[in-house]
Task: structure prediction
Amino acid sequence: MRFRNLISVLVFLFILVFAVKAQDDGVTITIVAHDSFNVSEETLNIFQEESGITIEILRAGDAGQVVNQSVLSAGNPLGDVLFGVDNTFLSRALNAEIFIPYESPLLENVDEQFILDEDYNVTPIDYGDVCINYDIPYFEENELAVPESLAELTAPEYAGLLVVENPATSSPGLAFLMATVAEFGEPSDDNDYSYLDFWSDLVANDVLIAEDWSTAYFGNFTQGSEDGTYPLVVSYASSPPFTYNEELDSATTASIVADGTCFRQIEFAGILDGTEHEAEAQQVIDWMLSVEFQQEVPDQMYVFPVNNEAELPELFAEYAQIPDVPADLAYEAIEENRDTWIQSWLETVVD
Result:
């Protein structure tokens, strides 16, 4: 009897030790991301079950805040993978050396235009173009031509029609500011009409400055709110699919995508230096580039996937627009001049 009891105890201890070991073998990867990061529970659960990796998502504000916090915690990171650094903040992250390089084999399905870091410290995941969106019925009912360039926005017929976001507080606002810098250039003896001249003319034409995209789109834009009075808004070229009206069988908005009117934001993910689970973090990067994850990007985060094998949702494919020639600014130039451009904008527009 005592022998049997001893055997039972030993079996129990073996099972307990095995269970504890199995639990210890499990790895949790924390993704530090901006507030707009999203993935469906179904896709997340499938990856967790197949990989044995548990995913935790730490949302830490907008893209700028995520990068700043990651730079401040360099070497002792808040998580294992950072998602959401874009080309307006990329140099800051790379200069701080917060990433471990990793070249995913799935990059073979990604166009080279999205690979801005040849050392693969970061991996492109998605992209979106910040453009002027317009209310189609408003322009039709008022027999008003849609502006075809940034310069046309200063014309008298568009007075009081445009709402933009503050570039000091809004990511799309900053992207639109970059588009104006690329289009009109900086003040100099050789430039008689700079981006600051353009903004002065917009102010004279009664442009409305909102603090963030939500306020501009869902508060001031005529197609975003019943109380909206502005039929032009700085948003994304991927916004129109979400204004699809079943009764009209059409989207009620569209984007102005003429050459130089839009700024392309590319979002990246990278493995944070200091992670204790580099191999598993690499699996997470691969997962973000997988067709399964990439095909969810449009509906979950309202932007385009970079994997050219990912299929777009039907409405997205029909109504989202891709500019042929977005504004061209090197990310190194953005890093060097971003704060100066914003401060000059504040002095011109707000002060």
